[in-house]
Specification:
With 240 residues, the chain is of the alpha/beta class. The chain contains nine helices and eight strands.
Length: 240
């Protein structure tokens, strides 16, 4: 259950099903069990690892505005496309540049600017920080912190998860799911504390367990003179 401004980081080993989970939310993968039930007003928006959605033959301005004009609509608010794109580090002289000539970081910023205009309240991101330069990463984090809806993001970037997450959804890889409050560092600290507590519980149980009764054993027979002499020379024979 997601409430407004929840930002969940989805973590776990490769193959645990993180991307599959996002694709299931989007309806592109059928549920393997149970059912998917969305709220009546839920509108999902996604940016995949391939970052599809730009027309590389159109300009930055044309890609930023679906109508291709000088103005965009952010909900009920109208804003000039140039001032809007300034938030994503595009200068006025960049607006006529073809999207196909942009760097990877610039393309991601433009795609983010375009997609955040779409009416939605749940944003799904799959490894959004891969190959991002420092400036673009900062733009992404600021945009997510200002996003009024909910965010579900798959990521291995611990610093990114620390800065934006309000919770961690952990997929250990065995089919189970664990939900933790807080960012990634808090999740790691809590997990370490649980492991320490489990070890302490195990040690306490071992100490409390009844000791096995002593078993009487026969004394080992004494060696004869010949056996004692043979034993004394065994190490030298082994070395030889």
């Amino acid at each position: 259950t997601l409430v407004r401004c929840t930002r969940l980081g989805i973590v776990g080993p490769n193959g645990a099903g993180k991307t599959t989970l996002l694709r299931t939310f989007l309806g592109s993968v059928p549920c393997l069990g149970g059912k998917l039930q969305l709220g009546a007003n839920t509108a999902m928006l996604s940016i995949d690892q391939q970052r599809t959605g730009l027309d590389l033959e159109r300009t930055v301005q044309d890609n930023a505005s679906e109508a291709g004009g000088d103005w965009i609509m952010l909900g009920e608010r109208k804003q000039h496309v140039a001032s809007y794109l300034e938030q994503f580090l595009f200068r006025t002289q960049d607006l006529r540049q073809l999207a196909g000539t942009l760097s990877g970081g610039q393309k991601f910023r433009l795609l983010l600017a375009r997609r955040l205009q779409e009416p939605s309240n749940v944003l799904l991101l799959d490894e959004p920080t891969n190959d991002l330069d420092f400036e673009t990463l900062g733009v992404l984090e600021e945009a997510l912190l200002a996003w009024p809806g909910c965010v579900l993001t798959v990521s291995h970037d611990r610093a990114f998860l620390d800065r934006i997450c309000t919770g961690i959804l952990h997929l250990p890889g065995d089919g189970s799911v664990e939900l933790h409050a807080g960012n990634y560092s808090e999740f790691e600290a809590n997990r370490a504390e649980r492991k320490r507590a489990a070890r302490q519980t195990g040690l306490a149980a071992a100490r409390a367990a009844p000791k096995p009764a002593a078993v009487a054993t026969e004394a080992a027979p004494k060696l004869s003179f010949a056996e004692t002499k043979r034993l004394a020379g065994i190490e030298a024979e082994v070395e030889a």
